[in-house]
């Protein structure tokens, strides 16, 4: 019996303020708004590109993301090149979001892949990375993967 190939369909995130989070994800990731319900007690937004659903936002939580609990560690998005990472970093800075490391950093010491690490308005840890071009800076953690410890 062969197992069919799997790939992630989309990621659903709980948020505290749908409007704020929708604006943030659209600005940083250049997502299209595919569908939304912004009123009533069942608020959501479907975000994607070229008609493909990538992220769903659900306004059904309070408080902030708890990094010290089991569950999502971080959500990473790959972009084609380091210039796309730089554009995302500029969008983050325009929004007043400071990266969790010193700007664009490699995934590990000597690695060419890497990117920028940050949190969304609810504290959900996010990463935008490119497969090459991040070896312009030292790794923030010498003996462990950068994306595992932020």
UniProtKB/TrEMBL annotation:
<protein>
    <submittedName>
        <fullName>Catechol 2,3-dioxygenase-like lactoylglutathione lyase family enzyme</fullName>
    </submittedName>
</protein>
<keyword id="KW-0223">Dioxygenase</keyword>
<feature type="domain" description="VOC">
    <location>
        <begin position="7"/>
        <end position="131"/>
    </location>
</feature>
<keyword id="KW-0560">Oxidoreductase</keyword>
<keyword id="KW-0456">Lyase</keyword>
<keyword id="KW-0479">Metal-binding</keyword>
<dbReference type="InterPro" id="IPR051332">
    <property type="entry name" value="Fosfomycin_Res_Enzymes"/>
</dbReference>
<dbReference type="InterPro" id="IPR037523">
    <property type="entry name" value="VOC_core"/>
</dbReference>
<dbReference type="Pfam" id="PF00903">
    <property type="entry name" value="Glyoxalase"/>
</dbReference>
<dbReference type="GO" id="GO:0051213">
    <property type="term" value="F:dioxygenase activity"/>
</dbReference>
<dbReference type="InterPro" id="IPR004360">
    <property type="entry name" value="Glyas_Fos-R_dOase_dom"/>
</dbReference>
<dbReference type="GO" id="GO:0046872">
    <property type="term" value="F:metal ion binding"/>
</dbReference>
<dbReference type="InterPro" id="IPR029068">
    <property type="entry name" value="Glyas_Bleomycin-R_OHBP_Dase"/>
</dbReference>
<dbReference type="GO" id="GO:0016829">
    <property type="term" value="F:lyase activity"/>
</dbReference>
């Amino acid at each position: 019996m062969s197992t069919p190939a799997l790939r992630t369909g989309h990621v659903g995130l709980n948020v505290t303020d749908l409007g704020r989070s929708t604006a943030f994800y659209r600005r940083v990731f250049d997502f299209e708004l595919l569908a939304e319900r912004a009123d009533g007690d069942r608020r959501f937004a479907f975000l994607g590109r070229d008609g493909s659903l990538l992220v769903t936002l659900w306004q059904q939580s309070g408080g902030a993301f708890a990094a010290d609990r089991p569950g999502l560690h971080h959500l990473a998005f790959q972009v084609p090149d380091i210039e796309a990472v730089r554009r995302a970093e500029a969008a983050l800075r325009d929004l007043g979001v400071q990266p969790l490391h010193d700007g664009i950093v490699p995934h590990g010491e000597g690695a060419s892949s890497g990117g920028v690490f940050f949190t969304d308005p609810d504290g959900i840890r996010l990463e935008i990375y490119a497969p090459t071009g991040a070896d312009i800076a030292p790794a923030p953690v010498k003996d462990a993967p950068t994306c595992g410890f932020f």
